[in-house]
Design brief:
The complex is a heterodimer of chains A (257) and B (430). Chain A is an alpha/beta fold and 257 residues long. Chain A has ten helices and ten strands. In chain A, the strands form two sheets. Chain A has a six-stranded mixed sheet with strand order 6-7-8-3-9-10, with helices on both faces. In chain A, strand 7 (173-177), helix 7 and strand 8 form a beta-alpha-beta unit. Chain A is globular. The N and C termini of chain A lie far apart (41 Å). In chain B, 73% of the residues lie in helices and 1% in strands. Classes of the chains: A alpha/beta (257), B mainly alpha (430). Bound molecules: adenosine-5'-triphosphate (ATP) and magnesium ion.
Chain lengths: 257, 430
C-alpha cells in the first residue's frame, strides 16, 4: 500500500520524560485516522513532532516517500501538512479574511520586490489569493465575519477560521488537534458536517485527536490508542470499541468520572 | 454640542481638495501680504514663524496680535475659500476619481507640496523645521515596521541612522567635495546632486547590513533581551565611530554639500511612505503581524518566520539609513553623539505617541512631537515637563498610541463629497 504519511519507530524525550516511544503511523491518501488517549498521553507531542515543531530523537518521517524529518515547520507545512492547534492559535490583530490569505504565503508567485513596489504581478496574485480565500470562507460558513477580528468571534466560528486557514495551505493531510474541544452540541454537529464536507471536497487525508468517542467512531476508518507515549491498540473503530485494554485505559476512566 | 454638529455639517461636503485650495489661499495671502500689511498693522515685529506660538510664549502681550494674525491669515481664508470653492473642488475631485488612484494621489501630493513650499518660503527657520519633520516621519515609519508591525522592542534605530548618515556622508565627501578629511574630490562636483540618491542608497544598504547584528539574535529572543541587545548595538556603533579618527571621531565631520533641499526630502519621504505602505499591506508584510501575534501558528501556516524577521529589520534599518543620510546633508555636520540615547528617546516617543502598527499614526506622531517641540521651545525647561506629561496621558488612555492598527484608505480620503452623491450611497446602503 502506498502511504501518504509514514512514521517509523519515532521516539522523543523531554529531559528525562519519555513522551513518545516507538511510535508508528501509516496514513493512506484520503484516510481518516483518529488518535485517542488519556490526558498527557503524548498526542499533541506526536503532532508537534511530525509537523517539525520538535525534531524526534529517533525514527523516520516521510511524506509521499520523501523525508520530512529535520525540515523547518514552514517547509513541512508547505509540503502539505496542515494543522490546527489544541488551544486555538489565531492572530489577535488580524481579521478573518487575512487569516486565510496569510496561509497562501508559500504559494505566492511574487517576491519582496513586488510587495515593495506593488507591481502588477503582486496585485494579480493578491487578487487571486483573495478570491480563493473568499471561497474557503464560504465553505466554512464564516464569510459574514470576513472583516472582523478573530477575537470578536464566537468560539465555534474561531475553530472554523482555524480550520479554513489550515485548508488554505492546500494540505495533503490535515491534522486536527481536538477540533471539538469546548464546543456546544450545536457547534459539534456543525463541525462533524464540516469535517465530512472538507474530506469529500478536498480529498485530503485527516489525522485527528479527539476525546469524544462518538465523534471518533463516527468519522474515523482507523484508530490508534495512545497511553504514556505508546500505542496500546489500533484498528478499525468496532475493534477499538470492544478492546478491553482501551476500555480500561480510556473508556473505563471516563465511566468512573 | 448642537453648535459643533451644525459646524460639522456645514463643512461636511468639503473634499480634501477643497481644504487644500483653502490652505493655498491662506498661504498665498501670507506670502504676499503677511509682512507688509498684516503683521505690520498688528504690530508684530515679523511674520510669526510657527503660528505665533513662539512669540506668544516669549512675550504674552503679543497674544492678541498673534491670534489675530492666525485668524486673519489662516482661519478665515481657509474656511472662506474652502467653502466658496466647495462645488468646484468637488467637481475636480470627481474628475480625479476617474483617474487611477496612484495618479490622483500624486496630483494631490504635488498640490500639497506647492502649499508647503510657499509656506516654508517665508524664512529659513520654517524650511529647517519642515525638513527635520519629514526626516522624522521616515524614521518613525521605519521604527514602526520593527517595533509596531513586527512587535519587537528594538532600541537600535539611532545606530542604523548613524550607519546611514556616515556612509552617505563619506560617499559624498570623498567623491564630490574638497574637504579637510578626504582631500580633493574624485569626481566633478557638478554631478554630485545627480548621484546623491546613490549615496543615500549606500547609506541605507549599510544600515540594512548592520541590522543583521540585531536581527539574528531576534530569532531566539524577544522582549527585554532583544531590547538590551539592540541598545548595546546602538552604543557599539556610537563608540566605534568615536574611535575612528579617519572619519572625524568624536569631533564629527562636516562640510556636506547642500544636496538635500526641501523637494528632495519631500520626495524621499513620500517614497518611503509609499513603499512601506505597499509592504505592510501585502501578504509578505502582514507576515510581520502574524509572527508578532503567534510565531508557531505562522510557521504552521508556511510562513518563513526567520526570513520575515530579517526582512523587517533590514527594511526598517534601510529607511533609517536613508533618514540618517538626509539628516547629515541637512545639517551639513554630524557627530556620534547625535545618534545616541537622546535621539532614541525622541524616536520612540514619536512612535509610541503616534500609534503602533499604523503609518498614519507614525506621521501624526512625528509631526506633532516635532512641531510641539519647536512651538514650546521658549518654555525651555518646562518643555521637558509638558511633552512627557502629554506622552504619559496618551499612554494611559491609548496604550497603543493615538492612531494604532489603522491604515488610511486613500480612495475615501480623496473622494468628492457631493450631497447628491452621498444620497445615492445612503439609498444603496438601505
Ligand atoms: N515542551 C515540553 N516540554 C516538556 N514536557 C512536555 C512538553 N510538551 C509536552 N510535555 C509533556 O509530555 C507529555 C505529553 O504531553 P501532550 O501535550 O502531548 O499530551 P496530550 O496527549 O496531548 O494530552 P491532552 O489530552 O491533555 O492534550 C505530558 O506529560 C507533558 O507534560
Ligand atoms: Mg494535547
Amino acid at each position: 500500500m502506498s502511504a501518504l504519511l509514514n512514521v517509523k519507530n519515532m521516539t522523543h524525550y523531554f529531559g528525562g520524560l519519555r513522551a513518545v516511544h516507538n511510535y508508528n503511523l501509516n496514513i493512506a491518501p484520503r484516510q481518516i485516522t483518529g488518535l485517542i488517549g488519556p490526558n498527557g498521553a503524548g498526542k499533541t507531542t506526536i503532532f508537534n513532532l511530525i509537523t517539525g515543531i520538535y525534531t524526534p530523537a529517533q525514527g523516520t518521517i516521510t511524506l509521499e516517500n520523501e523525508n520530512i524529518k529535520g525540515l523547518e515547520t514552514n517547509e513541512i507545512a508547505a509540503k502539505g501538512v496542515g494543522r490546527t492547534f489544541q488551544n486555538l492559535a489565531l492572530w489577535r490583530h488580524i481579521n478573518v479574511l487575512d487569516h486565510i490569505k496569510m496561509a497562501h504565503y508559500s504559494q505566492l508567485a511574487y517576491g519582496l520586490f513586488g510587495s515593495f513596489f506593488n507591481t502588477p504581478a503582486c496585485r494579480r496574485e493578491e487578487t487571486r489569493v483573495e478570491e480563493n480565500s473568499y471561497r474557503l470562507l464560504e465553505l466554512f460558513n464564516i464569510k459574514q465575519h470576513a472583516n472582523q477580528l478573530v477575537t470578536s468571534l464566537p468560539y465555534g466560528a474561531q475553530r472554523r477560521v482555524e480550520m479554513a486557514r489550515a485548508m488554505a495551505i492546500n494540505p495533503k493531510v490535515l491534522f486536527l488537534d481536538e477540533p471539538t474541544a469546548g464546543m456546544t452540541p450545536d457547534e459539534l454537529v456543525q463541525m462533524i458536517k464540516i469535517i465530512k464536507q472538507v474530506h469529500k471536497d478536498f480529498k485530503v487525508a485527516i489525522f485527528l485527536i479527539e476525546h469524544r468517542m462518538k465523534f471518533v467512531m463516527d468519522l474515523c476508518q482507523h484508530i490508534q490508542t495512545l497511553v504514556f507515549g505508546e500505542i496500546i491498540a489500533q484498528g478499525p473503530p468496532e475493534k477499538i470499541q470492544n478492546n478491553p485494554a482501551v476500555i480500561e485505559a480510556y473508556l473505563g476512566k471516563e465511566d468512573l468520572t | 454640542m448642537e453648535l459643533i454638529k451644525k459646524f460639522k455639517h456645514l463643512f461636511s461636503n468639503i473634499s480634501l481638495l477643497g481644504w487644500l485650495i483653502g490652505t493655498l489661499a491662506a498661504v498665498v495671502i501670507e506670502y504676499y501680504w503677511g509682512y507688509d500689511y498684516i503683521s505690520y498693522y498688528l504690530g508684530l515685529p515679523k511674520i510669526p514663524v510657527l503660528f505665533g506660538t513662539l512669540i506668544m510664549l516669549k512675550n504674552p502681550i503679543m497674544i492678541p496680535s498673534a491670534l489675530a494674525y492666525d485668524i486673519i491669515v489662516y482661519l478665515i481664508p481657509i474656511l472662506l475659500t474652502a467653502g466658496v470653492s466647495c462645488n468646484f473642488a468637488n467637481f475636480l475631485a470627481g474628475l480625479f476619481e476617474k483617474l487611477p488612484l496612484g495618479l490622483s494621489v500624486l496630483i494631490h501630493l504635488i498640490f500639497f507640496y506647492a502649499i508647503l513650499h510657499l509656506w516654508a518660503g517665508i524664512n529659513d527657520y520654517r524650511i529647517l523645521i519642515i525638513k527635520l519633520t519629514l526626516i522624522s516621519i521616515i524614521l518613525t515609519v521605519s521604527v514602526n515596521v520593527i517595533n509596531g508591525y513586527q512587535g519587537e522592542f528594538s532600541c537600535s534605530h539611532p545606530g542604523f541612522m548613524a550607519l546611514g548618515a556616515y556612509t552617505s556622508s563619506i560617499i559624498t565627501l570623498v567623491l564630490f567635495v574638497n574637504d579637510k578629511i578626504f582631500g580633493t574630490p574624485l569626481l566633478p562636483e557638478s554631478i554630485g546632486p545627480w548621484l546623491f540618491p546613490f549615496a543615500l542608497l549606500g547609506g541605507g544598504i549599510a544600515a540594512a547590513i548592520g541590522s543583521l547584528l540585531v536581527a539574528i539574535p531576534s530569532f531566539r529572543t524577544r522582549g527585554d533581551y532583544l531590547a538590551i541587545i539592540s541598545l548595546a548595538f546602538m552604543f557599539i556603533i556610537k563608540s566605534a565611530v568615536e574611535n575612528l579618527h579617519i572619519i572625524g571621531g568624536a569631533r564629527g565631520m562636516g562640510g556636506h554639500p547642500d544636496y538635500a533641499p526641501l523637494p528632495i526630502i519631500f520626495a524621499w519621504t513620500m517614497l518611503c511612505i509609499w513603499v512601506v505602505h505597499n509592504f505592510v499591506t501585502s501578504i509578505f508584510g502582514k507576515a510581520l503581524n502574524t509572527v508578532r501575534d503567534d510565531e508557531a501558528a505562522s510557521e504552521a501556516m508556511t510562513i518563513k518566520t526567520r526570513k520575515t524577521k530579517v526582512t523587517a529589520f533590514m527594511f526598517g534599518a534601510f529607511w533609517a539609513g536613508i533618514a540618517g543620510g538626509l539628516f547629515a546633508h541637512v545639517l551639513a555636520y554630524i557627530n556620534p553623539s547625535m545618534f545616541s540615547i537622546n535621539r532614541l528617546a525622541e524616536i520612540l516617543a514619536m512612535v509610541y505617541f503616534g500609534g503602533l502598527n499604523s503609518i498614519v499614526g507614525s506621521i501624526v506622531g512625528a509631526v506633532s512631537i516635532n512641531v510641539l517641540g519647536e512651538a514650546l521651545r521658549p518654555l525651555e525647561l518646562f518643555k521637558w515637563i509638558i511633552i512627557p506629561l502629554i506622552l504619559i496621558f496618551v499612554m494611559i488612555f491609548r496604550p497603543y498610541g493615538l492612531i494604532s492598527f489603522k491604515e488610511i484608505d486613500a480612495k475615501r480620503l480623496l473622494r468628492a463629497k457631493n450631497k447628491n452623491n452621498q444620497g445615492i450611497k445612503d439609498k444603496r446602503g438601505v
